[in-house]
Amino acid sequence: MPRTGTHASPISRNSIARGEPVMLMSKIRRKMHIGIWIIAIVFVGSIFLYFGMGGPMDRKEQSKKDKTILTVNGKKIPRAMYDYYFTQFMNSSPQRITNYQMQMAVAATTVRQLLQQEALIREAEKRKLKVSSSEIKARIKSDRDRMLGPADEAKNTGLGGRVKAWIADNRKNKEYKQEIASAGIPYKIYKEAIRRELLAEKARNAISQEQIEAESKKVEKKARDAWRKLNAGESFASIAKEYSEDEATADSEGSLGWKNRSEMDQAVADVAFRIKPGQFSEPIRGSMGFQIIMVDAVRKPSGEGYEAFRREKIEEIRQQQAQGQKTQMPSERELQRMYESVLLKHILFKLPDTRAIITEWAEKKTKEKGFKYEVHDPEIKAFMALQDALDPEKGAFTQKGLDAALAAYQDALKKEKDNYQLYYQLGYIYEQKNDLLNQSADSSKDKGKDFEDPYADAGDKDGKKPKKSVKFLDSSYESYKKAYDMAREMGDDNPDIIIGLARVSRLLALNGKKDNSKYRKQARERYVEAFDFSLDISPATLYRLREIRDALKELKGDAKTIKELDQAIADIEQEMGMQSPQTDMNQFTAGGEGGDSNTVTVGEGEDGKPVELNEEQLKALQEMLKKQQAGQGGAPSPDAAPASGKTPVPAGQQ
Q: Could you give the CA distance from residue 343 to residue 133 in angstroms, rounded to a whole number?
């Protein structure tokens, strides 16, 4: 993987406004529900972009790698196949991905999706499904035509015309093969990828029918339960609020307003225009899932209302015809159907998305005992272990998971000693282990339990501040320092590594038992160095600058630099449309007065209106950004990774 400098990217304003802990890597994995067998089709027009620019990693570096990326039950999957699919994911992003953590998340996603694809292929073979050579040729031709355009069609069907058509088609095939070769993709790998996609697609189609039918029975049962409650006398409004999966109408009695036949599924329309006002239906299966509907009123095509509608519609069409539009005048019956409508309410029970069902099925298969696999790339294997260290239910790491990730990275370093990113990840893991240790200590104290902390007696000379454990911070510091030194030697001034080193140095300076002058000096220098980097204007950048400023104040850093930071923060706040340079989240986390009446504008929403956060939301925002700085960025998919969702993002990678 490329080892390049990284910069923070903007965080969604809507996510900030909701106070949600944004986990970018988690979103990437969750959004990549679409299987590789579909992604390759969608992005075939740009599959050569990344390869054309050197591929997913330096070629010299790649040559040192194992030629096999995966072994699944003894079956080898070549690295070239992984490279091909890695390209699909990279090119699915609207912007070129250079951030190391995101590239690793894509790499891990690619491996996990290859595993899911292999599970589908095994199922296809079990069902004796096959792909013919003609199917492969047809798919390749479709890909070719999407990229290069179709071959010139013959103007006549005679022998000469057929020969010309054959020559044109053959020329296009040759051109397409040259494009593939120039992109560094072996043609046999491309062809095999097509075969795998088609085979997985056949398995997916077969499984989806079975799975959807099973899921639809569960959804129908839920709808029947709600229907029975309605029959028992409960109000439509209360059942809609409790059961409906239509977020837009659940809290408004399920109201859809006036609807004519053309605005409903045929099955729903047939019932809606049959039942009387005030009645509700049994569950009806339609394209959206199952619906229970209730009609409040019916508008029939008669009376003054219909006549007015009829005159307006006819005049509208006449004007269109006068302007040269080929609009046909509707018949009387068609006009009546346009006007005829019902005032409708519904309770919606959605059917699961087909792709999500298949992804869940495939991922489940990869975790069965009979599905044995080995990832041969140590860096990707270690990153996947770090993803798996995150408990998806709690959104937090486990010590057991971090220990496994630690062992995986230590093993990776035995094979790739010159990879400074591996040292950076080690520093991050040790930092997270230390953070978990302190969380356990705080939790035990809150519950009144004894907690043996070997660093509990380490305190400031004045004894005013309680100290935190630094049990794993020495190892974290050494790993970050190694990454920092190696990166500098390679000419990479990586701001995330610099911030990580500064942060751990600061913690050791404030909490360590030893002479802390070395760590204070290191922390000051690295924070100042991090300030020298030009970052984008975003809430993440603003938080980072505040972190640097506050840390330098705490460490009694250079007054001039702190003043420059204040000015930079003020400039960014002004550029983002914030209320005041003096408004700072720290005043709220320190217990600002006024409770929810304290708000701060953090920018504009998509509607152009100011986004204001109250105290609770600000605390959530700060916690979110702390997690991003500290590395809890989420997990395994760009709106695409496997569904399990667990990619941590070390310091500042958002």
A: 55
- Collapsing DSSP to helix, strand or coil, 101 comes out as helix
Structure tokens given for 315: 């005049």
End-to-end CA distance of the chain: 18
Distances (CA, A) of 568 to 315, 490, 498, 549: 62, 29, 19, 10
* Position 453, amino acid: D
Q: Does domain 215-354 have CATH number 3.30.70?
A: no
This prediction has a pTM of 0.67
Name the stretches of the chain with pLDDT < 70: 1-65, 152-158, 441-467, 513-515, 533-536, 540, 578-654
Q: What is the pLDDT of residue 157?
A: 63
Give the total residue count for the chain: 654
Q: pLDDT at position 409, please?
A: 97
What is the pLDDT, as a whole number, of residue 479? Answer: 96
The predicted-structure confidence for 74-121, as pLDDT tens digits, reads as follows 999 999 999 999 987 887 777 777 778 888 999 999 999 999 999 999
Q: What is the pLDDT of residue 119?
A: 95
Q: 179 with 147: CB under 8 angstroms? A: yes
Tally the C-alpha atoms within 13 A of residue 108's C-alpha that lie toward its C-beta: 34
Q: How far apart are CA 201 and CA 236, in angstroms?
A: 42
Strand partners, 604: 610
CB atoms within 10 A of CB 107: 23
Please give the full DSSP string across 466-516, using - where no structure is assigned.
PPPP-TTHHHHHHHHHHHHHHHHHTT---HHHHHHHHHHHHHHHHH-SS--
> From CA 273, how far away is CA 295, in angstroms rounded?
9
CA dihedral 17, 23, 28, 32 (to 10 degrees): -90
| Domain-wise residue ranges, the chain | 22-209, 215-354
Q: Which residues contact 628 (CB under 8 A, 6 or more apart)?
A: 11, 22, 24, 540, 649, 651, 652, 653, 654
Q: How far apart (Å, rounded) are the C-alpha atoms in residues 254 and 245?
A: 10
Three-state DSSP at 95 gives: coil
Q: What is the pLDDT of residue 443?
A: 62
Read off the pLDDT of residues 23-40 as tens digits, 9 standing for 90 and up: 322 332 333 333 333 333
Q: Report the DSSP pairing between strands 289-299 and 341-350.
A: antiparallel
| Amino acid (1-letter code) at residue 300 | K
* Identity of residue 600: V
Structure tokens at 569: 């923060």
Assigned token pair, 281:
């239906």
